[in-house]
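Tip: read the tokens left to right.
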């Protein structure tokens, strides 16, 4: 890895962060007249801890990392944006990511006038480290990889990830939003071995708390200090910090729900690949399935009319004909299957008629 100083934008490196009232005060006090708060409406009258110390202690214990290796934000989306803003000079630097993958890397890069270079995955949605490394040049500051990947569902090859971590001299972000559903362990344990590694996780998926907006970035204390410098001082609300502490006490509950989702995922897969559907279902290490249904937009629209909403990925590179279907509760999955059973036969029939008409037209054209 290059020196951190040579990777961080020069203006960010020399930036003196905003120092909030709660940052400047250390120690014990019982009268708080330092932050222009209102004395009434306890406890919501007070600004929350800008460093989220209690929550970080809790997460540190849970994840087996040091508290100073943790950044907390308003969803992992905040961390994605901050990483690009910390390292990439607008109009000059670039990021490299894979395609298809999570759309926020490209959006966050675009907002910051940072070029986003996409490396297509191979036909099995596998990662070719050499192609990714070849795409990165000396203006590429960050490589974003997502594993398990959204929307394809598969985990990326470990060996390829290690190769990129070893050979790329900039920052490598591994987005592990779906790691708790995965058969593979987190890369968190590699944090000490790779100074350029940033691991993203979230409370939005396996922990079932998308509404509270809590994302986590894990990295060296030096990288975390850079992100802390440019975040909004009070970026995680008191409500979120308290609710997160409560939710994280329920690890057992989370594990049970994950188990249920995984067994439902396999039931859904089995039913979708067999009679009467015979769909192609891609291997999934996450809480969703990428399913090739043929006429994706027609199936999507018909499902909507049945009150079932899935994600249409028909227009995404390499996902032509595909829907991304989140694994729900057993009842929700049954409703999906019932609806598919009703909407698919007429759509297939129409497709066959259309193909036959096209064939007829072709013959007339030749005559
Ligand atoms: C859902 C998802 C996230 C989660 O984002 P939050 O802002 O934490 O809710 C991050 N990355 C990927 C790939 C996702 O699919």
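Filled-in amino acids:
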């Amino acid at each position: 890895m290059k020196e951190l100083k040579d990777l961080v934008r020069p203006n960010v490196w020399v930036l003196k962060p905003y120092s909030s009232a709660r940052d400047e005060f250390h120690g014990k006090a019982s009268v708080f007249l330092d932050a222009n708060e209102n004395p009434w409406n306890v406890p919501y009258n007070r600004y929350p801890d800008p460093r989220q110390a209690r929550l970080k202690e809790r997460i540190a214990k849970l994840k087996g990392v040091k508290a100073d290796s943790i950044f907390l934000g308003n969803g992992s989306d905040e961390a994605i944006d901050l990483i690009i803003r910390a390292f990439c000079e607008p109009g000059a630097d670039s990021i490299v990511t894979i395609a298809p993958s999570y759309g926020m890397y490209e959006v966050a890069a675009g907002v910051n006038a940072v070029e986003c270079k996409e490396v297509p995955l191979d036909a099995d949605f596998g990662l070719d480290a050499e192609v990714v490394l070849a795409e990165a040049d000396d203006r590429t500051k960050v490589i974003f990889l997502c594993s398990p990947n959204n929307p394809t569902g598969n985990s990326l090859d470990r060996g390829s990830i290690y190769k990129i971590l070893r050979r790329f001299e900039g920052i490598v972000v591994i987005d592990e939003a779906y790691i708790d559903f995965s058969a593979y362990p987190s890369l968190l344990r590699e944090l000490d071995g790779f100074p350029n590694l940033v691991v993203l996780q979230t409370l939005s998926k396996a922990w079932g708390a998308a509404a509270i907006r809590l994302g986590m970035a894990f990295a060296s204390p030096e990288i975390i200090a850079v992100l802390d410098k440019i975040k909004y001082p009070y970026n995680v609300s008191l409500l979120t910090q308290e609710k997160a502490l409560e939710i994280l006490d329920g690890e057992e509950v989370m594990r049970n729900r994950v188990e249920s989702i995984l067994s439902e995922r396999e039931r859904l897969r089995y039913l979708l690949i067999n009679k009467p559907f015979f769909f192609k279902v891609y291997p999934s290490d996450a809480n969703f399935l990428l399913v090739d249904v043929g006429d994706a937009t027609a199936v999507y629209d018909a499902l909507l009319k049945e009150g079932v909403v899935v994600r249409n990925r028909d227009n995404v590179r390499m996902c032509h004909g595909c829907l991304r279907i989140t694994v729900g509760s057993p009842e929700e999955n049954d409703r999906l299957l019932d609806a598919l059973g009703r909407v698919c036969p007429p759509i297939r029939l129409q497709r066959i008629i259309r193909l036959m008409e096209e064939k007829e037209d072709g013959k007339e054209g030749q005559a």
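The chain has 13 helices and eleven strands. The chain has a mean pLDDT of 96.
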